[in-house]
Amino acid sequence: MPLWIDSLFPDTVLVLGPGQNLLRLAEARLQLPPRDIARAASGLPLWPADRRGAFSHWQGQSLCLLARGAAHHYGADVEGRADAETAGLLRAEAMGAGDLAKLRARALPDVETLIFSAKESFFKAAFPLVGRVFGFDALELAEPPQTDHLAFVLTQNLAPALRQGQRVRVRYVRLENAVVTWTRLSA
């Protein structure tokens, strides 16, 4: 049975579950006609003009975030909780000194997985605007984590619509053995 999160943004749904038919389930939920989604050379989806979204997968679980319209770009990610060794690798790869300083004010379980996933969601939403790969250091926590979202600040100019100092909010939910993150950026 899929997990649905309907209150992300207006005209947007997120579905998480086993299998590959989640796009069709999300299209039906939003009353959108079924469409196949091609992939760019980068591997990211090429969305039709009437919809945008994001995909992710982890250990047999797939995630589809789908939104009606083209006013925003979306990013979503699902990541399993990391063991101690993997958490150390994620900390070294995805977290800078600014992130670590903000985390001292509010410790969270599985914070390395959460930060990594949140930055992955941002990358997926930002890539259509940026058009190139950029590092995890492009985002830094702007404040200690909240119970349902993370607030980041851009540390560099990535695109005309993504400037240094701009704040970005990434929402999240914790599942029994994973975290799910999502965000949207104006197109």
Keywords for this structure?
single chain, 187 residues, alpha+beta, Ribosomal Protein L22, Chain A, 2 domains, five-stranded antiparallel sheet, four-stranded antiparallel sheet, 4 helices, 35% strand, globular
Summarize the structure.
By secondary structure, this protein is an alpha+beta fold. It is built from four helices and eleven strands; from the N terminus they run ββαβββββαααββββ. GO terms for molecular function: holo-[acyl-carrier-protein] synthase activity; magnesium ion binding.
Overview of this structure, please?
With 187 residues, this protein is α+β, with helices and mostly antiparallel strands. The chain has two domains: 3-76, no CATH class; 77-186, Ribosomal Protein L22, Chain A (Alpha-Beta Complex), CATH 3.90.470.20. Helices cover 25% and strands 35% of the residues. The chain contains four helices and eleven strands; from the N terminus they run E-E-H-E-E-E-E-E-H-H-H-E-E-E-E. The protein has helices at 22-29, 84-94, 97-103, 111-130; strands at residues 3-5, 12-18, 38-39, 45-46, 51-58, 61-68, 72-80, 139-141, 149-154, 167-174, 178-186. It has a five-stranded antiparallel beta sheet. Strand 10 and strand 11 (178-186) form a beta hairpin. The N and C termini lie far apart (33 Å).
